[in-house]
Amino acid sequence: MKQASRPSPGAAWRKRIAVASRWLHIYLSMISFGVILFFAVTGLTLNHADKLSGMQRVARYTGTIAATAMQPQPDHAAIEAQLRREHHIRGAVTDTRDDPDQVTLSFKGAGYAADAFIDRPGGKYQIIETRSGAIATLNDLHRGAVTGRAWSRIIDASAVFLTLVSLTGLCLLLFVYKRRSSGLILAAIGIAVAVLIARFLAA
């Protein structure tokens, strides 16, 4: 009776790597599906932002900053807290300016901007708040513009997921012997075309 030969250690490791790559590729692809769809759709809306940005809503608010926040020097943190509390201002403070007659605070967020102009020394203020539509907000999220640390971390995680999906797909291709050469050639052509386009546009 002929005894079945055992696979060599190298063949066993190749099989394990192939199985692990297939498992990772499938499940990472499913996890990344929403991310890929989001950046694909918002890539189109961002490229046609002039047609799809929608209407902006502008609101104006007035009031008076508490005297303790203005004297002897403007307390930006206290001013910010009052404006957020009274007018639900959102976004991050991206700029502050102290002039002899006026204090200015600028707030920015995805699809959002607000500028507060405060008279000195009386503390009377005016806020101009601009809210963009949903598509403009999504475009800002795509760009990662003034979206805060939390969204920045989501973008980083998305980049890691998509890189792993690409690498595990390439790893799988290496084990498909009949398609390996043609697949690697196409991958190299795709990379070369992307580099050439980037260099042409950057010139």
Q: How many domains is the backbone divided into? A: 2
**Major pleated sheet:** 5 strands, antiparallel
- How many E strands? 5
Secondary-structure-derived class? alpha+beta
**How many whole angstroms does the radius of gyration measure?**
27 Å
Helix fraction?
55-70%
Question: In whole angstroms, how far apart are the ends?
Answer: 71 Å
Q: Taking all residues together, what is the mean pLDDT?
A: 82
Globally, the shape reads elongated
Helix/strand order, N-terminal first: HHEHEEEEHHH
DSSP helix count? 6
Question: Which percent band covers the strand fraction?
Answer: 15-25%
Major sheet: arrangement of strands: 1-5-4-3-2
Spans where pLDDT lies below 50 across 5 or more residues: none
Task: Outline the fold blueprint.
Blueprint: H1 9-47, H2 49-52, E1 57-64, H3 76-87, E2 92-98, E3 102-109, E4 112-119, E5 124-131, H4 134-143, H5 148-174, H6 177-202
Helix pairs in contact: 1-4, 1-5
Question: What would your notes on this structure say?
Answer:
Helix 1 (9-47) packs across helix 4 (134-143). The chain has six helices and five strands. It has a five-stranded antiparallel beta sheet, with helices on one face. The chain has helices spanning 9-47, 49-52, 76-87, 134-143, 148-174, 177-202, and strands at 57-64, 92-98, 102-109, 112-119, 124-131. Helix content is 58%, strand content 19%. The protein is α+β, with helices and mostly antiparallel strands. InterPro entries: PepSY_TM-like_2. Keywords: Membrane, Transmembrane, Transmembrane helix.
